[in-house]
Amino acid sequence: MKRFHVHLHVDDLSKSIAFYSRLFAAEPVRFERDYAKWMLEDPRVNFAISTVGHGSGIDHLGIQADDQAELAELKVRARFADQTILDEGETVCCYAKSDKHWITDPQGIAWEHYRTLDAAVVYGQSRGKGSRAAGAGSASACCAGPVGLKSIPVVALTNKACC
Q1: Domain ranges for the chain
Q2: CA distances from 120 to 92, 116, 130, 159 (A)
Q3: pLDDT tens digits, one per residue of 75-84
Q4: From 3.10.180.10, 3.30.1300.30, 3.20.20.150, 3.40.50.300, which CATH number describes the 3-153 domain?
Q5: Across the strands, what pairs with 52?
Q6: CA dihedral 113, 73, 88, 95 (to 10 degrees)
Q7: Rg of the chain's alpha carbons, rounded to an integer?
Q8: d(Cα 97, Cα 93) in Å, to the nearest integer?
Q9: The pTM is what?
């Protein structure tokens, strides 16, 4: 069964861990000096935060597949959405070894489709030839997604009508 993925950039990791741990009534399942992750079952979501990157807000969204068949299905859906696919294959990102590909929605928000293969001891790996992100080659570029990715800033809500 697939799992929804949300990755946020945060300015203060310890304050954000305290906030989200109370909000989710759960502690992170993975904690590093620059990263934390919750694997929630209700709702079924992989929620990650990190200080790696620029600014605060949504870094990228995604869908985590449990197996290769689900990942292949997600790739077919990405092609059907008529978007260019960046297929990274096996890579290291966010302290995990994964098989993944990326697409960008019409607003420039990156979507990651991936299957986690194993844990990793580093945040990310250097991108080789053909890297597409500014800062490519640095560990912080591992979750940069396709060219044109824009982070969506966190916006304070007011009493005005919403949704």
Answers
A1: 3-153
A2: 7, 10, 23, 44
A3: 999 988 877 8
A4: 3.10.180.10
A5: none
A6: 40
A7: 16
A8: 7
A9: 0.73
